[in-house]
Amino acid sequence: MSTFKAPKGTYDLIPPFSAQYLAVRDAIAAPLRTSGYGYVETPGFEDVNLFARGVGESTDIVSKEMYAFETKGGDKLALRPEGTASVLRAALEASLHKQGNLPVKLWYSGSYYRYERPQKGRYRHFSQVGAEAIGAEDPALDAELIILADQAYRSLGLRNFRILLNSLGDKECRPVYREALQGFLRGLDLDDDTRRRIEINPLRVLDDKREAVQKQLVGAPLLRDYLCDACKAYHEEVRALITSAGVVFEDDAKLVRGLDYYTRTTFEFVHDGLGSQSAVGGGGRYDGLSEMIGGPALPSVGWALGVDRTVLALEAEGIELDIPAATSVFAVPLGDEARRVLFGVVTELRKAGVATDFSFGAKGLKGHMKNANRSGARYAIVAGERDLAEGVVQLKDMESGEQQAVALDGLVEAVRTRLA
Ligand code: ATP
Ligand code: MG
């Protein structure tokens, strides 16, 4: 071991486990890639004000969790705590919204950073795959995103997750509700921090996880009862579209989210096998965000799914992803001449698209075969001086143990035929 360790709240992805991780990322991205979403990649850090304004000063993310720092040049930056503000910033900067039909549909995958109290499922460095549909107000778009996330989780074999759905209203009806909620909350027995929150972002109080707070919230006014006609109709349409796609969801009138920018459709994917860190993903509509960061009005909707927690959800359900062995063929040279020849064969096989590895370093047939076994390869190519003198190698089927001499000059084709 070195004298250094991964920083607190972080962990390394190590093979073979890391393959699960890649597979989860791919599975989440797959339905997006075939639904018109283009890949976007933004820097790992941004102007701190993009998040302060975009995500909202009163959110936990901005007030407590952000890794903000000043550069040697005096720029105030922050490691990105979430993806939406960055992706919208990038889309505006590239004027994607002016280059064709709206919405602009984008997906992303990457690392995010929050200074949180580390625990299972809650890390300081974590990974998300996300999707954003920018510039259109269309309930079918909200429905599409929820359906695609559902499809992604199902393709991984997950079953014990639930979709919670709510509407947060818009700039017409939310202020009325906000005031009613504040009136209610001011009458409760709450600590100073929470009292402050009532004045800045009262909806967030509904999200308080503490039993003592939740007990007092029982009779709180619900946004559902305050939605204006337009928001109500919009929400009904989203619900109808998801339902007709066969996606099951639960109405959750108390669902709010950690970010200030959400409007109308809000949803969360929760998994019942994860204890208190149960949210595996979430998202919603953020019609006002573009204007908040200096752009034009661009009503948008998106989600971000947590890769770390999705992997934990797979574990909780006892799901082992079927990941094909990384190596199909493993070359075992016996002697120096064979080493030179087989090393060339390995390069040829790789060029032909066959996943091939070579027994490096090992000494003696036993050591070599141990390497071959560990690689998980389906076939081993074994050759010594006598084989080479006859122009052949031994092709060993690692499953059946059968071995056959194959001519060296027809080897690539022979291997490809067997693997096909
Ligand atoms: P929570 O309520 O658990 O703090 P959040 O509302 O802060 O979640 P979002 O900002 O919506 O989470 O991020 C989307 C997803 O990213 C979450 O559902 C979760 O799966 C994942 N996520 C968020 N924060 C972390 C973290 N610190 N460690 C691991 N995954 C995280
Ligand atoms: Mg959080």
UniProtKB/TrEMBL annotation:
InterPro entries for this protein: aa-tRNA-synth_II (IPR006195), aa-tRNA-synth_II/BPL/LPL (IPR045864), Anticodon-bd (IPR004154), Anticodon-bd_dom_sf (IPR036621), His-tRNA-ligase (IPR015807), HisRS-like_core (IPR041715), HisRS/HisZ (IPR004516), HisRS_anticodon (IPR033656)
Gene3D superfamilies the UniProt entry points to: Anticodon-binding domain (3.40.50.800), Bira Bifunctional Protein, Domain 2 (3.30.930.10)
Primary residence: cytoplasm
GO molecular-function terms, A-Z: ATP binding; histidine-tRNA ligase activity
Any one Pfam family match given in the protein's UniProt record, by short name: HGTP_anticodon
Residues that bind L-histidine: E82, G83, T84, R114, Q128, E132, R257, Y261, Y262
GO biological process terms on file: histidyl-tRNA aminoacylation
Subcellular location: Cytoplasm
Enzyme class, first EC level, given as a word: ligase
Quaternary context: Homodimer.
Family affiliation: Belongs to the class-II aminoacyl-tRNA synthetase family.
Protein name: Histidine--tRNA ligase
The species this protein was found in: Streptomyces venezuelae (strain ATCC 10712 / CBS 650.69 / DSM 40230 / JCM 4526 / NBRC 13096 / PD 04745)
